Amino acid sequence: MTATEFIPVIVMLGFASAAAVGIVFFSHFIGRRKPNPVKLDFYECGVPPLVSQRMRFHIRFFVIALLFLIFDFETVALLPWAISYKSLLAVHGWALPLISILIFLGVLVVGFVYELSKGAIKWE
Description:
Layout: H1 7-30, H2 37-40, H3 59-83, H4 85-92, H5 95-118
Helix pairs in contact: 3-5
């Protein structure tokens, strides 16, 4: 690939960056600023907040969220493989697609067993 093939991408990124900066710039100078206590209050789906928003969360919330993202990524990574499985079989035979997905799933299973052994999923 030559450098001239990237010119449209660079131009598009330039326009997108200019649009983003322009929107932020103009909204800062054109937008109204009339703060009052109602506008500055926290809003949670129409329900008045029960506790302070500065309350600390237990680290388990974040660990569970990260584990969800990891296994959600697994699903997203398996989908293209499953869709292209027939064409992979036609090109590479049965061994390479099967071995590659088994390695991928094996790494995830080892990670999941490690998480279980460390007690990351236990809620105490």
